[in-house]
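Supplementary Note 3. Input sequence used for the single-chain structure prediction.
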Amino acid sequence: MPTIAAIATPPGRGGVGVIRISGPEAGAIAGQLCGRSEPWPERRAVLARFMDEEGATLDQGLVLYFPAPHSYTGEDVVELQAHGSPVLLRAILARALDLGARMAGPGEFTRRAVANGRMTLDQAEAVAACIDAATLRAARQAERHLAGEFGHFVSGLMEEITHVLAHVEACLDFPEEDVPAPLFGELRSRVERELLAPIEASLKTAAFGERLFQGATVAIIGAPNVGKSSLLNRLAGRERAIVSDIPGTTRDVLEVEFEVAGIPVRLADTAGLRDSADAIEREGVRRARQAAGSADVTLLVADATRPETWDVDAPADIRLMNKVDLVETPGAWAEAFLPVSAVTGEGIDQVVEAMAQRLEAMPAAEEGLVVTRERHRRLLEQARMRLEAGLAMLGDAASLDLVALEWRGAWSALGEILGLGDVEAILDRVFSEFCIGK
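The predicted structure, written as discrete structure tokens, is reproduced below.
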């Protein structure tokens, strides 16, 4: 494989920037770049000068050499730690490319790690998840996947399928022998207990797991002046939206990010829903309805002092009665709305809890390993479907070949999670989402 190189730290200025080089010529290229003829010591930081083609110093920093196969990619890897100036980093990278390295593509370092057996495909996806994690809860799940917990779970399922398939294949190999009557019952029990039950339990975590990384959108809707912007500011913990007694102040959808039970949430404040002769306000109302239609959760806000806003039939996931600090006793809305006050903070914790329930957030105390990627969920669903299809035909000795076919399909679906099967097609799809330098 050709030697590749890329800047491994994010764009922009920083104290330190890292350039990664991987491949058979990594050490030699680093040696020429630094004017060093002797071999690099293994896994020790060496202070060196990074030089241009004329021998002039570009920068001074550290060089770390990781020999194959005990490196991130499984190849010889060199990391150059320079000052984090984008200009300097680009100049050092350009010099490495002039000396024979090729610019790395998106995720190519991690792809090589998979190809060289340093990690499975699901672990490689966890690398991207670690980078993309927007909350601590998401980062912890990504780390568990990176440590191989999910891969171990999938491997265990595949091993179990192999065991049950062995019994089916044995019956197919010796058709002249009568299949023992208890065998079908034993196989059915084993598939249901050791395969379908854990797969089903895992799939129940998928909605929460995917939202940990994809995030969710919550739209605040309601009539003008019911306190939608004040509620957004209270939930966000800062003055993000303009608050005014003048109807129609909010003309467009305003979004702010915050966190609910570890799930990153985009909270959208929308224009007040009403008929208006103002063309700009009408467009704001149209966008508000559009935002509500595409949101994962809608919060309908009403005003405790204005009965005309108490629409209990309006479509919404959660109904909030704002400004309860201005009334002495609950009105007819008591059972249909959660009482809140954006001014005093009353009821805000209950609002967050209600949003967490709508987003299917798991209590932290119950959280185990969760499915975090749509690709994994779909393949687990496919494996479940193939296992159930095989079970439906189990019991008829004449259909055992079809049972085996379905269960082999379940094994293949699980294997695709780990990168088995049409490897190149799977890798192309997965690593197209990675950043360059990783």
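DSSP finds 14 helices and twelve strands in the chain. Confidence is low (pLDDT under 50) at residues 240-253, 272-282.
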